[in-house]
Amino acid sequence: MTRPVKAVRGYFGVGVEGISKPMNLGAILRTAHAFGASFAFTVDAHHKARDVFRSDTAKSLDHVPYYGWDSLDDMVLPQGCALVGIELTDDAVELPSFRHPRAAAYVLGRERGSLTPEMLVRCEHVVRIPTKFCVNVSVAAALTLYDRTICLGGYPDRPVMPGGPELGDAEGWAAPKSR
Predict the structure, then answer these.
(1) Tens-level pLDDT at each residue, the chain (179 residues)
(2) Is the pTM of the predicted complex or chain greater than 0.90?
(3) What is the CATH number of the domain that holds 129?
(4) 125 is a domain residue
(5) Is residue 62 in some structural domain?
(6) Residue 147: is it exposed, middle or buried by C-beta count within 10 angstroms (0-12/13-18/19+)?
(7) 128 partner at 20 to 30 Å CA-CA among 4, 83, 145, 177?
(8) Whole-number Å distance between alpha carbons of 139 and 144
(9) Which GO molecular function, any one, fits this protein according to its record (predicted)?
(10) Does residue 4 belong to any structural domain of this protein?
């Protein structure tokens, strides 16, 4: 049984700068759709990445608005929407310590590359995923959106002991299974 994503006040979008592989973009769009994104975008996407329609099995673009900006100068976000770069920089905030804005657009860098210096300047926040090395861009998007859901989705604090909360601790939560 699948449960719907819990409603969160605000909204978010997710996008990639300079992406070149349609399978990665398809996975990002599918993940954005699964987590309830309000929009998705690319900036300076390689023409091959625009073949995403063949790789997005959920047909996410039928459900999530998509903006394909040719350049950073063309990118226009809603007023009050914080641009959050996901990048491995020395001064980036580690994802587990980051408080997500209610209205945010998350932007990730290209495969085998980084966000451009021009994009980083536009970012209100820069966040890093605490890994030993870079992960695939679609994995980074999924980790970021999962973290947003956990932080802003109205979930109760995790129990102190291993397992889930006891029955009755929170509406909709099942009792832990005993062995």
Answers:
(1) 555 555 667 899 999 999 988 889 989 999 999 999 999 999 998 866 556 766 666 778 789 999 999 999 999 999 999 999 999 999 999 999 999 999 999 999 988 889 999 999 999 999 999 998 889 999 999 999 999 999 998 788 888 888 887 765 555 555 444 44
(2) no
(3) 3.40.1280.10
(4) yes
(5) yes
(6) middle
(7) 4
(8) 9
(9) methyltransferase activity
(10) no
